Amino acid sequence: MRGALWHNENTMAAKDIYHDHVRKALEKDGWTITHDPLSVKWLGRTLQVDLGAERLIAAEKGAEKIAVEVKSFLSDSPIEDLRDAIGQFVIYRSALRAGQPQRKLYLAIREDVYANLFEQPEGEVLRTEEQIKLIVFHVLKEEVIKWIN
Q1: Roughly how many angstroms between the first and final C-alpha of the chain, as a whole number?
Q2: How far apart are CA 14 and CA 1, in angstroms?
Q3: Residues linked to residue 97 through DSSP beta bridges, in sequence order
Q4: pLDDT digits (tens, 9 = 90+) for 26-85
Q5: Residue 22 in contact with residue 37, Cβ under 8 Å?
Q6: Which of 68, 91, 114, 140 has the fewest CB atoms nearer than 10 Å to its CB?
């Protein structure tokens, strides 16, 4: 059920292979994981974004809140993985805007995926046009390498 979009109330989505790596990377970066997964209602169903997190940004501003969808890009077709990831990102972003507009959605990807897809001219155009926020992480170090807004 990897990548499943719809879930019944009693169904858990399968975790991405890099889920725990991203969780640890966010914690190292100063984030508190508040939801694992983060459930969001949309079209009468429950969507489950991989992680919800927050961190204090200033006493008078309160907390910055994010939602993170982790994608592995492990199939034989990087373009199909990209299509699936972008489609899921767009739907989750819409659901969050309706139900939790204070949260910013990020797509978490490995550094090699970023280099092979999003650093290419076509990938940069896609990311910009679709307003995709990225967290690029290092798998072995379990660290965030860069945030791309």
Answers
A1: 30
A2: 6
A3: none
A4: 999 999 999 999 999 999 999 999 999 999 766 555 789 999 999 999 999 999 999 999
A5: no
A6: 140
